[in-house]
Specification:
The chain has 13 helices and 15 strands.
Length: 422
């Protein structure tokens, strides 16, 4: 923030009682009064006045200097490393932000504003928080002493309108055939788990998959910070976890919400992301008649995701590994793994069927896999291609009268012994 803008800001704040609720109209009127008085002294033109008017309003009511980035649809991520060092992601690349906060205290004001809007607390005693903004953007904040260089804020932005499966096909994330294949699986109630690394688009893909949920079904969504926007689901209840208060009481965890959701007559349960012991509760829900449930998790491959689920289940209960693997194999039907290629494009790298437990490990069989074909300049050329193995678990498909696209009755390698464990 330039020196004159800070001076104008201080003039506006000086006569305001910030302990009282002030309407936007009143605030704009006060800003205009200061700009009128100072504008005559400094000969401010109309364009400069408008710029300062919006900047001061943003500092008091929005996200201060970050408001410009949040209004730019090409910005997908905002990373505040400290009050002076800010970066944004545009088109898959990082670049420095041209502005900075006047003081670390001003950045702290913005952080407290974000946390208060979703009834979260953040301070030295509780220096980390996940939250969301009014537009659905996901926010993570870390304060000193954990953050050594000052408050750190990471804002993951989402499109104003949820991304549809049609858009993902146009962007080359998957083929039309693979999308139709997943559509049939969702409609027929297959339990699907989406894996991928950070920034691969798991939440976006989950939202696109949810387009295919029949509108006759009741859906319960469960998240740490509510960000899913399922526009085609009418009968929906959205639940959000809650951290403990200063006394360590009244915490509501993802595990609590999954258990409670079972009493809410859901047809499907959608958990935004599995990170810990709630993996056990999610598997139990999938194994107790809630067909068509969907969740996501972080992993570098589909095989790694299965190992992570085993580890997360052990966080919740000390069970023998054979029992955990049996729960995974009977609860999960399909694994969809997402990746981000070297050209920064997000692709579906594979669609796998969970086929059972063999030789002390959960087996998965590739139904579709991404095959790279070369480079077109800086762009990776390739597509998601169907393998020779067909879907073996067809009970849900037959029960609901579903039919898979482009799958021959007896594809080569369809025999059970020929199916590989990836």
């Amino acid at each position: 923030m330039d020196t004159f803008r800070k001076y104008l800001y201080d003039q506006v704040v000086h006569d305001l009682d910030l302990t009282e609720e002030i309407s936007d109209e009143t605030l704009y009127r006060k800003i205009d009064e200061v700009l009128f008085a100072e504008g005559k002294k400094n000969r401010l033109g109309g364009r400069a006045r408008l710029k300062y008017r919006e900047a001061i309003f943003a500092a008091l009511r929005r996200l201060d200097i970050l408001s410009i980035a949040m209004d730019d649809p090409s910005v997908t991520e905002v990373m505040v490393n400290s009050a002076e060092r800010i970066y944004v992601e545009k088109g898959g690349g990082l670049e420095p932000y041209p502005d900075s906060f006047t003081t670390p205290e001003k950045l702290l004001d913005v952080i407290q504003q974000i946390a208060a809007a979703v009834n979260r607390r953040i301070n030295e005693a509780s220096p980390m928080v996940d939250a969301r903004l009014f537009d659905g953007s996901r926010v993570n904040v870390v304060l000193p002493p954990v953050a050594l260089d000052g408050p750190a804020v990471t804002i993951r932005r989402f499109p104003k309108e949820p991304v549809s499966m049609e858009q993902l096909i146009r962007w080359g994330s998957l083929t039309e055939e693979a999308a139709e294949f997943l559509k049939v699986l969702v409609q027929c109630g297959y339990n699907i788990f989406i894996s991928g690394g950070t920034g691969t688009g798991k939440t976006t893909f989950l939202g696109a998959l949810a387009e295919f949920i029949p509108d006759t079904e009741r859906v319960i969504t469960i998240e740490d910070s509510a960000e899913l926007r399922l526009r085609n689901v009418k009968n929906i209840v959205r639940l959000e976890s809650r951290p403990a208060n200063l006394e360590g009481q009244y915490e509501v965890t993802i595990r609590d919400l999954i258990r409670n959701a079972l009493r809410m007559r859901p047809d499907r349960i959608i958990v935004g992301e599995i990170r810990s012991a709630e993996a056990l509760d999610m598997l139990q829900a999938m194994n107790t008649g809630h067909d068509g449930s969907i969740s996501t998790g972080h992993a570098n491959s589909a095989r790694d995701m299965l190992s992570r689920i085993e580890t997360m289940v052990l966080m919740g209960m000390d069970l023998p590994l054979p029992a955990i693997r049996s729960q995974i194999a009977s609860g999960l039907d399909i694994l969809v793994h997402l990746g981000r290629l070297r050209d920064r494009s997000r692709r579906v790298m594979g669609i796998y069927e969970v086929t059972g437990v063999k030789r002390d490990k959960v087996e998965i069989c590739p139904l579709y896999e991404f095959r790279e074909e070369g480079m077109d300049g800086d762009q990776v050329r390739g597509s998601l291609q169907r393998s020779s193995f067909r879907l073996r678990n067809t009970e849900k498909l037959l029960a609901r009268g579903g039919r898979l696209p482009g799958i021959p009755d007896e594809p080569e390698g369809a025999h059970e012994d020929a199916a590989p464990s990836v």
